[in-house]
Structures are given as structure tokens and as C-alpha cells.
Specification:
The structure is a single chain. The protein is of the alpha/beta class and 259 residues long. It has a single domain, classed as P-loop containing nucleotide triphosphate hydrolases (Rossmann fold, 3-Layer(aba) Sandwich), CATH 3.40.50. Helix content is 50%, strand content 15%. An 8-stranded mixed β-sheet has the order 3-4-2-5-1-6-7-8, sandwiched between helices. A hairpin with a 4-residue loop joins strand 3 and strand 4. The longest helix has 35 residues, at 224-258. The chain is globular, with a radius of gyration of 18 Å. The two termini are 33 Å apart. Bound molecules: adenosine-5'-triphosphate and magnesium ion (MG). The site of magnesium ion (MG) has 5 residues, from helix 1.
Length: 259
């Protein structure tokens, strides 16, 4: 799954970290691949510093196994901790990231790719390699218009791309439903489609506090609403993955039967 947004600072990394933590608490092996090359901050959210990143591996400063960092039962891979000669060499990065994804897929149930804002090369790569694009939406006109342009661009390439919305910083479930509905009215009118919701994350001081304490809010004592909503999102992801597996199995059985 890739966590994406049009606008920056809307909670992509916060969502990636806590969805991974929730999946872990549900018993799944979860990994986060931070592709915000040069401005990585997932490690900071776990109060860690990556000893080695993907660019170190490309430049032969370490083995592949050294870039898989354990952050309290979740595997974290950082593409590039700070800007360097490779951070905009997308062809080289993508070749390496594909190998990293293969290595993670062999030993994890879920991989969450945390992306930078906007529609850069690595965002498109992340969406292409993911079975779900989780778009972060907040109740601000700039967020709605950026997310709309983001979806328009990707759906223009692949009209059936599997997007789902996560509303962040919502006052409550009603407010989250309203902003999702407002967004879908625009999508329906201009793009003749609808994008389902995967859940919402409440606006909360505990979340800001968790960022300051550099610990996932799902590892802290926080409001029951936060726990409930992250569990809801994680369970939706699990259900979607099962449905996709079932469809793939069905397809391959059908193909075998036809042979
Ligand atoms: N639900 C929330 N409640 C309160 N504060 C929040 C919430 N979600 C995000 N924030 C605040 O917004 C800040 C930005 O979040 P985050 O770093 O996850 O955004 P981002 O989309 O990953 O940003 P970037 O585009 O820079 O990668 C956090 O540091 C936090 O203070
Ligand atoms: Mg981020």
C-alpha cells in the first residue's frame, strides 16, 4: 500500500507509522518503506536514526540486510536520510527499490510505502507497485483540490487504479464523512467515478504529543477513538488484501481450468 497526498504535511507519515503499528498489533508482519528521498522522517517518528539507507546500499557501503531496521517489531527501510548525489537519480533508485520491495515481500504480510507530497517519480513508482493508494485528505480547499488533481492525473493513466481516501484531522466521524462526500461530489462530476473511504483519523492533541515524543500514538495511552479508528483502517486493509488474494486465486484457477 502507498500513502500519498497532493499537499504536504497532511499526515501521510503519521498514518503510515500508525497503520503499520496497528497491523503489527493485529499479528501481521508489517514493514514501512520511506521513499521521501532526502527528507525521510519515519525513522524520527520512531525516535531512531537509520544507520544505513538504500543509497548506502547502492553505493556499496553496506549489505541489503543492513538497511532493514527493526523499529519495535516493524521493519523500516529509509531510501535516503538526507539529500545526496543519488536522491534525484530516479532510475538507479527505482532499480534498487524494486529489489528492496522483493526482499520485504518475502518476509512481511504488509508493506506501507510512505511517499513525499505530490506527483514525483517515486510517487508514481510507489503507486505502480502497490495494490492500494491511500490518499490523505484534510478539510481544506487546497487539500481537496490537490487530491483531486492527483487522482485525475493517475486515473487518466489507469482509470481503474485502486484508490481509497483516509480523512485526517477530522473533528468526528460525521465531519469526516462530510469531507469525503464533498470530495466525491467533485470526483463524480468531473471524473465520473467515486473513491471509497478507508476510514478517518481524528484531530487530536495526543497525536501531536506522539510526534513530539517520537513514538507511534498506537503505542501510547491515547483516546479510545484513535485506537478504534486506526483499527478500523487496518481491518479494512486486511479485508481488501484478502479479497484481492481471493480474486487472484480465482483467476489463476480459471486460467488453469481453461488450459
Ligand atoms: N490527526 C492529527 N491530529 C493532530 N495533528 C496531526 C494529525 N495528523 C498530522 N498532524 C500534525 O501534522 C504534522 C505533519 O504530519 P506528517 O509529517 O505525517 O505529514 P506528511 O503528510 O507526512 O508531511 P510531508 O508531506 O512533509 O511528508 C505532524 O507532525 C502533526 O503535528
Ligand atoms: Mg511525510
Amino acid at each position: 500500500m502507498a500513502t500519498v497526498s497532493g499537499k504536504g504535511g497532511v499526515g501521510k507519515s503519521l498514518a503510515s507509522v500508525n497503520i503499520a503499528e496497528t497491523l503489527k498489533l493485529l499479528g501481521y508482519r508489517a514493514a514501512i518503506l520511506d521513499v521521501d528521498a532526502g527528507m525521510a522522517n519515519v525513522a524520527t517518528m520512531f525516535n531512531q536514526y537509520p544507520s544505513y539507507s538504500v543509497t548506502d546500499w547502492i553505493e556499496d557501503r553496506c549489505e541489503l540486510s543492513h538497511i532493514l531496521q527493526d523499529v519495535g517489531g516493524i521493519t523500516l527501510v529509509t531510501t535516503a536520510n538526507e539529500p545526496g548525489p543519488l536522491t534525484d537519480k530516479y532510475e538507479i533508485l527505482i532499480q534498487a527499490l524494486d529489489q528492496v520491495l522483493d526482499a520485504l515481500a518475502a518476509s512481511h504480510d504488509f508493506i506501507i510505502i510512505d511517499t513525499p507530497a505530490g506527483l514525483g517519480e517515486l510517487n508514481l513508482w510507489a503507486l505502480d507497485r502497490s495494490r492500494l493508494g491511500a490518499i490523505m485528505l484534510v478539510d481544506e480547499p487546497t487539500s481537496v483540490s490537490d487530491v483531486y488533481r492527483f487522482c485525475k492525473y493517475v486515473l487518466g493513466i489507469d482509470p481503474s487504479y485502486p484508490f481509497a481516501v483516509i480523512v485526517n484531522m477530522a473533528a468526528n466521524d460525521e465531519a469526516a464523512a462530510q469531507i469525503h462526500q464533498k470530495f466525491n461530489q467533485i470526483v463524480k462530476y468531473f471524473l465520473q467515478t467515486e473513491i471509497p473511504s478507508m476510514g478517518y483519523i481524528p484531530y487530536s492533541e495526543s497525536i501531536r504529543e506522539s510526534i513530539r515524543k517520537q513514538m507511534p500514538v498506537m503505542r501510547m495511552e491515547a483516546e479510545e477513538e484513535i485506537e478504534r479508528e486506526f483499527s478500523y483502517i487496518a481491518q479494512n486493509i486486511v479485508a481488501l488484501a484478502r479479497e484481492m488474494q481471493r480474486r487472484e486465486l480465482h483467476k489463476s484457477t480459471e486460467t488453469r481450468a481453461k488450459k
